[in-house]
Amino acid sequence: MALCFFSPLPLVTAKPSKVSLRVRRPICGALKGWQEYEEAVKEKDLARALRFLKSMEDITYQSSVSSVASSTEESLVKLFLCERDWEVLDTCLNADDMRLVGSAYKFLQDRGLLPNFGKCKNIVLEGPREVTPTVLKSATGLEASKLAPKKWGLSGTSSAVLVAFLGGVSFLLSQGIDIRPNLAAILGLAWLDAVFLGGSCLAQISCLWPPFRRRILVHEAGHLLTAYLMGCPVRGVILDPIVAMQMGIQGQAGTQFWDEKLEKQLEEGGLSGAVFDRYCMVLFAGIAAEALIYGEAEGGENDENLFRSVCGLLQPPFSVAQMSNQARWSVMQSYNLLKWHKNAHKAAVKALENGSCLSVVIKKIEEAMPSK
After folding, report:
1. What would the pLDDT profile of 110-124 be if each residue is shown by its tens digit?
2. Model pTM?
């Protein structure tokens, strides 16, 4: 990597003092080692990347702060290091140990790079606990039915696809092209895709339709932003249905986040209300995001299935009425949270739409957050 970024301006010809030379040498020597960090990021090796950043913190920061180097040079060094620190988030997706992902977020937060991470983690203590459909409509302006995921054939997207398919078949038949012998094979393949591949092939095709893909981005950005604001480290956002299937994620896309307290309490056989509330808010944030932008939700069926599974782990297990109330409360909380941070959600959607990596998405979120 070129070192001219930290060199004096070309017009400055004064000979540097011995003290400043002693300062620049460790800095320049350390910068040469950034190739190791670049390789770690490229290989998605979180442990190696984080270990390197911590070693650079001991060497470079202490050298620049304790030195008598110019304030300009010191600022440039810190700016460079901060910009590179963000990239460690791009290595989280392949990390097997979620505790290591949590360490990466804590490292960046200690550096002052994630000021809004976890800023809303206490919001679960606010608002009424009993949320009837009437209360939900009063808080969001939407009927409860608008906040429920649609089954295939009932949503606007699936209905449009079905109408287009039937229209295409009718057109081909009117042109004398009989596809009925192949129709059984097509439907058979669709059934196999749904049963054995979780519908990933059909989802891959559907994602090519821009309106449908954007709805997915809105949904996943809702998960991501809510998890971030609630202090849950985000491992990554998977938007490719095939990759999602390979990673064991049901559905067309997925946002992987981690809640240390949730994991610890589940291992101990108990779950506190505050931790469960936070998890449910993140889980229903995709539905809330769709409702906020489109006035209704279509996706989120897998989120609901996961919610019911977690409710079954509670002691005693939630009744149907309790699950319904918890779901309405969670959607209402997430809806309002995303509404308050609408600009940050919009920034996240745009970054995901541009194919940005996780570090860029979170940086855009931070830039869109209101200044204190």
Report:
1. 988 999 999 998 776
2. 0.74
